[in-house]
Amino acid sequence: MISTVLAQAAAGGSGILGQVFLFGSIILIMYFFMIRPQQKKQKESKKFIEEIKKGDEVVTIGGLHGKVSSVEGDTVMLELDRGLKVKVEKSAISLDFSKKPETKK
């Protein structure tokens, strides 16, 4: 009986290598299609927030469109209209909506 169990275990050994290869390829695909693009987007967003300066046209996550009138540490003073200013956190400014759409020539 023990020899039968050992023979079955030896025969199943080649399937384990295939499963490891399949599992490894799934992890690799997830990295290139999910994790890596997300890390790149976070890096771009962080760079955008750090480079905000006076005069930039931005959009907040809540949808407010305005022009940066001053930057003080982690807060930004947005001028929404003449005389109407709002203080918001830098993290509340959206990179996706603040980008100008690129026109193709």
TrEMBL record:
The organism's superkingdom is given as Bacteria
Q: Which GO terms describe its cellular component?
A: plasma membrane
Q: Where are the transmembrane segments?
A: 16-35
Q: Name one GO biological process term.
A: protein transport
Q: Which InterPro entries match?
A: Preprotein_translocase_YajC
Q: Where in the cell is it found?
A: Cell membrane
Q: How does it sit in the membrane?
A: Single-pass membrane protein
Keywords in UniProt for this one?
A: Cell membrane, Membrane, Protein transport, Translocation, Transmembrane, Transmembrane helix, Transport
**NCBIfam families with a match to the protein in the record:** yajC
Q: Which PANTHER family match?
A: SEC TRANSLOCON ACCESSORY COMPLEX SUBUNIT YAJC (PTHR33909)
Family designation: Belongs to the YajC family.
What is the protein name for this chain? Answer: Sec translocon accessory complex subunit YajC
